[in-house]
Amino acid sequence: MDQIAKFQADLDSRADAKVIERSVTKNGILASSQDIQAMSQTTPVFSIDLDTGSVANQKQSGRCWMFAALNTMRHALADQFKLKDFELSQNYTFFWDKFEKANYFYENVLATADQPTSSRKVAWLMTTPQQDGGQWDMLVAIIQKYGIVPKSVMPETYNSSKSAEINSTLNLKLRKDAVELRELVAAKTSADEIEDRKNKMLNEVYRMLAYAFGEPATKFDWEYRDDDKNYHIDKGLTPKTFFDKYIGWNLDDYVSIINAPTDDKPYNHTYTIEMLGNVLGGRQVKHLNVSMADFKQLAIKQLQAGQSVWFGCDVGKSSDRQKGVMATDVYGTDELFDVDLAMSKAERLDYGQSLMTHAMVITGVDLVDGQPTKWKVENSWGDKVGEKGFFVMSDAWMDEYCYQVVVNKQFLPAELKAAQAEEPTVLAPWDPMGALA
C-alpha cells in the first residue's frame, strides 16, 4: 500500500494528469493521441500510380490474402480485355482452400499421432485446425491444381462473405476427426484402413463445403460485355483453361520476399515453415529474407514495370482504418501516457508484439529524388474506408510493419536469384513468418 501511495503521489504531481484523464476516459486512447499533422504527410498523390479500377470487399471473412492475390491477376486481365470492375471468384478458391486445408490437417494429425496432446506441435494443430487466412504460395498451390473462374461463374454466398459459422462448424468436425485418427494410430490400425477412414472424413468435408459455398464450377461458358459495350462469349471453359487463356502467368516466376530482421534469419537466405500449407505435395511456402532496402527496390521495380505488388503487413498497428492512413506518427500514445513504447522490428517479432495480419496490393509509390516517401495501397474492405477503398502507407510505416512482398523473380539481381533457389531452412510452426494473413 505504501508503494501504491507513491504511485498516486506521482500521478497527483503531474500538472496535466487530469486533462489527459478526462480526454482518454471520454474519447479513448487513439482519438486522444491522434496527430492531425501526420495526415498532411500522407496525401494520396503518387509519382507512379497504376489504374486498377474499383476495390473489392472481403466482407466478414479473412480472405485478404486471396483477394489481394486475385486482384493482382485481375488488374492485367481487366486492362487487356477492357473489363470495368471485373473480379475473379474468391468463393471458388475459398472452397478448394478449405477442402485442401482439411486434408492437410488430417495428414499433420497422423504425422504427430505418436506425440501426446500436451506436446507443443499437437497443441498448435488443435488451436486452429483451419482458418480463412493464408499466404501467397498457398493460393498458387490452389490455382495450379484447380485453376480459377470469373466471379460471375461462382459468386459469393452467405458463408463466403460471413465465414464464422462454417469455420466454427468445420473446426469442430476436424477436431472430432483428430480424436478418431489418433485413436486409430494408437490401436495400430493398418495404413489402408486409416486412409479409408480419412477419405470418408474428406467426403463429409466436401459435402459441408458444397452446402456452404455451392458446388465448385468444373466447366462453364463465360459471357460478358466489355467497356465498349461489345458482347463476348467463350464456351466450354474449365477453371484451368480459363487461367491459361485469360491470366497466362507462369506462377513459378512469382516469389515471396520477406523482411524479418531477427537473429535466427540471416538475410539472403530462404526459409519455410513446418506444417504450413494447404495442398499436400503442392507449392511449398518459401520466403527469401532480404534487407529493407532490397525489399523496397524490388517492389518499386515491379511497379515501374506496370504491375501491382501483393504484400503482407501488420495492418492494425499505427493506422487509421476509416481515413485509410498507415503512418508511424498517426498516434502519439507514448507521448500521451509519457511512457517509452518503442520496440525495434526484430523485437516486435521475437516478443509477439507484431506479425503479418493482413494482405493488400501496392498500386503506386511516390518517389522524390529517387527515394520512396509513401505508397498507394488497394485494400479489400470495400469503398467506404480510405479514399474509395485505397489507403496511403508512409515509407516509415513500411519499414516497421511490412513483412512480405511478392515479385517476379526477373527483378531479382543475380545474387538474390541464387539465394532464392537454395533449399530453405525449416522454421518452427509458430514462427511469425508463418502467420496467415
Automatic annotation (TrEMBL):
Entry's localization field: Cytoplasm
InterPro entries xref list: Papain-like_cys_pep_sf, Pept_cys_AS, Pept_his_AS, Peptidase_C1B
Active site: 64, 358, 379
GO molecular function: cysteine-type aminopeptidase activity
Keyword terms, alphabetized: Aminopeptidase, Hydrolase, Protease, Thiol protease
Family, as annotated: Belongs to the peptidase C1 family.
Protein name: Aminopeptidase
